[in-house]
Write the structure tokens for this entry.
Amino acid sequence: MKYKFPKNFLWGSATASYQVEGGVNEGGKGVTVWDTYYHSEDRGYTGDVAADHYHRYKEDIKLLKEMGHNTYRLSISWARIFPNGYGEINQEGLDFYNDLINELIANGIKPNVTIYHWDLPQNLLDQGGWLNRDNLKHFVDYAKCLFENFGDRVDIWTTINEPASEVMGGFVQGAHPPLEKNLAKAFQVSHNMNMGHAMIVKLFREMNMKGEIGIVLNPMPVHPASESNEDKVAAEKAYDYFTRWYVAPVMVGEYPKAMLTECIERYKSPIIEDGDLEFLKENKMDFLGINYYMRRVAAHNESGNYEKINEQFKFVKVPDGLYTDWGWEIYPEGLYELLDDIRKEYGEMPIYITENGMGAIDKIDENGEINDDYRIDYIKRHIKAMHKCIENGIEIKGYYVWSAIDILSWTNGYTKRYGLIHVDFDTLERKIKKSGKWYKKVTENNGLEE
Ligand code: BG6
């Protein structure tokens, strides 16, 4: 075997509650910010049914098993457990996830559970959401409830999925709830999320939970578009903004200095209270989850508003680059560079690749098959890149394809497909794609032949 992986390596795929479950008004679930988002105006699709995983999880787990998975990453919907974000526990929500976790384990699939993947209970947003530091106590109570109820069977936990996307989607671009464009708020939210993460790590230790806990980030390598000094400065700024800003606080309890100074000068944000950075430092996680999709190439933004930290650079496409239908550059080489840079800058930390995959418009052929060779090629190239990381001493413990089944892509709806399993969104029928069948061989062989 040319690309053999370490013994006990975990092979699986991932989803997130809101993107697959549906059943938004069932089982006592409360309203989330995404329910509000899809229903406040017609966006052409909603998460009301999604892949109907809420009702079909047993069938889905059977298919995961058929694909040789030994792990699966899922997230829990806060509003199924606490419909208002806090207060009375909704037993039906606990029952649902208990059944789901038990079903996974019964099929030899290790659950990797994300506590928060963006589906904030609406009631908490009404009280300021992540901007209101008081809400962190509800986040901790919610995590405590999960640890108490599922901690005997779950031993890989992640606190938050991609704070960067929540911050940028929700508070910079105004594309995700709460649809704001306010950099001061954005930086405060990112600091508050880091504090929430560290509080949960602390709780995990205090409760003597078994297993390990980490966070999932989406850092990316950023290259300058040219050798010009201006482009190099732009790339450095973009790397601070997209990568260091999120990696540094959870790894070493610091923010990148130049960017922090600029944020405080320009936006008086984030407000970091006395003791916060020590708290981040003291409550160190066990692993770093990496969602890796692409690299960015940055150039000086001549039309930028330089007061705005995110307009001091712009992203450009490289002429010979390979891009997905959505313009995401396919650049597996960047994975080693990224992880190597992170360890050089912040020290060693075990890694899980918690998401990696290709969003595409899949076609069904005349025999009803989905021959997604492009996805096989994408995953194969990234598995090789991951192998290179391991050979060079980076500890990677598992790999999760995004996604297990076709999901609701937050702002792209149901046309951007990621799944190893196809979902017919009219009939909700499932079918393993060619990539799923191919991935089964990888998991069974614990590696790649070529
Ligand atoms: C990650 C998220 O950022 O990227 C997923 O964790 C998301 O929830 C995935 O679906 C792909 O993004 P998109 O916008 O193509 O759905």
Q: What stands out?
A: The chain has one domain: 3-448. The chain has a mean pLDDT of 97.
